[in-house]
Amino acid sequence: MEAVSRMASAKQVEFLADLMERNNRSIDRPLESLNVQEASELIDELLGNEGNANPVQAQVLQRRRAGDERTLQARLGMAFKLVYQANVIRGDGYVKKPASRVNEGFIEEVIEVFQLMNEVANRAGIDGTASL
For residues 130 and 66, what is the distance between their CA atoms, to the nearest angstrom? Predict the structure, then answer.
């Protein structure tokens, strides 16, 4: 009996699409049709290609990824601050107990504001969409 292999995860597919774009590569089938092993091997190959690329280009890519990550971290921090301030102004107080319903609503609101900030940045042409 042949073992059924799992399909590539959404994160793998997203990462592969980014790597393929950066490496100017394509394959003859949809990325979503790859299994976990095939996706992993292709990721390793493409990452290896990036490492063998022009050293200056590799440094630029590395700085860009680090910048994207810092941008997202700053946006998340700003979203947290805005929601926290709004809660204090509304009189909801501040977050005390991690398991409380209030905190769940707070977390959801922070995520909603963060996603909105990313959407605004993307529409404005300011791309900072590395994985978080």
Answer: 9
Domain boundaries, the chain: 10-52, 68-123
Instruction: Kindly report the number of other CB atoms within 10 A of residue 8's CB atom.
Output: 23
pLDDT of residue 53: 53
The pTM of the whole model exceeds 0.70: no
User: Helices 55-90 & 101-123, crossing angle to 10 degrees?
Assistant: 130
State how far Cα 85 lies from the chain centre.
Answer: 26
CB within 8 A of 27, min separation 6: which ones? 20, 42
Query: Is 68 within 8 Å of 75 (Cβ atoms)?
Result: no
Contact 8, 39 (CB under 8 A): yes
